[in-house]
Task: structure prediction
Amino acid sequence: MLPSVQKFTFAIMKNINISINLELSPNPRKDGRHFIMLRISRGRSEKSRVSTRIYVSKLNFNAKARFGKWIRISCSNHAKLNSILKQKVQYAEEAIFELEKLKIEPTVTNVCDYLKGKFDNHNKPLSFTEYFKKVIDLLYKSQQARTFQRYEVVYNHLVKFCKSIPLQFKDFTVGFLHEYEAELRSKGLATNTVGKELSILRSVLYRGIDEGYFLQEKNPYFHFKIKYEKTHKERLTLEQVKKIEALDLKENTFIWHCRNFWCFSLYNGGVRFGDLCQLTWDNLKGEHLEYQMNKTSLTKKFKILKQAQQILSFYSDGNKEGYVFPLLKPEAKDYDEFQLVKKISSRNSQCNMYLKEIAKLADIPIRLSFHMSRHSFASILKDRGVDVYDISKALGHSSLKVTEVYLSSLSSSNEESFENIFND
Result:
């Protein structure tokens, strides 16, 4: 902690008596450096701070230095940082005049809001709904298609719930959360689905808090708990897998392909559908399948078991270019993220429809889906006593904790044990 907060008074606008100062944040970051803050104040009682997003060592900052010399030369990039700080201080002074031109009273709060970009084209502070839309637009521009789709669904639900009236940040309260939760439940949504929606709203609010749109001390999630229920993950036993493999399906029909897709995923540690669609022959490296998982960006390497090798033999046909499985057309490699996600989602739905038919044909009373290949793989290994670390590595989870949670809802990888299990 700093013994006292250092300041540099840049200017005092005598007509409204607002001071603009530079100071270090009282609390350091984890690396020991402090953010440099713009301190906007009027008198001793009215004050607020806006981060410059610049952080330095306490020893490299001199609040009492001449204008533009706050960062000491002991800092390697002092010239660049001083230049940026000069611009920020000058912009803060200009904000006072800009507010007056807009006929908005230049109070400490309004000056800070102006610096944080919290006024739209109509010179009104952004509502939570408008801020949420800004977040979604940024997700779209950054091609985060899957996150964009989830957030857009929640945004549309929120707008409908509020009857198209923007929800203000000040109205984002515990009471609002209870009302919104009750509305979602009245629509028949499952507890975990409701929980995921409320979690996305929390993520947007926390982002708004980080950007200065809302005060952390007013955070309603301090007094509101998102509810989740423990779910039962459906999965197949090894005996049921064998029944599916024994089905007499006409070769090269789509239902035959869907069985191949599902079984290949199972025998390779539960390859997710999106990853399976994008597998190319370049991902087959000798006896191993090696690819980067879309969900976690981690690289997964798995020894190809003989059952998976047999499935691959149906698709090699001497052609080792392009995608391994006939799920995406060759031109899909040129799709943007949104086109790719849309096509994969469509193919996943189609495949799941045929998998349910496969389960019926095999007399298995389960609504079989593609993702169940991951559940089944993990469950089979767990039932055979495989160590949780080996299961975690095989699934490609980012931590053992994720795997433990994953396995709790189920009644270098140990490749040899996997082969023995599936070859029993």
User: Anything to note?
Assistant: Residues 1-15, 402-416 have pLDDT under 50 and may be disordered. The radius of gyration is 29 Å.
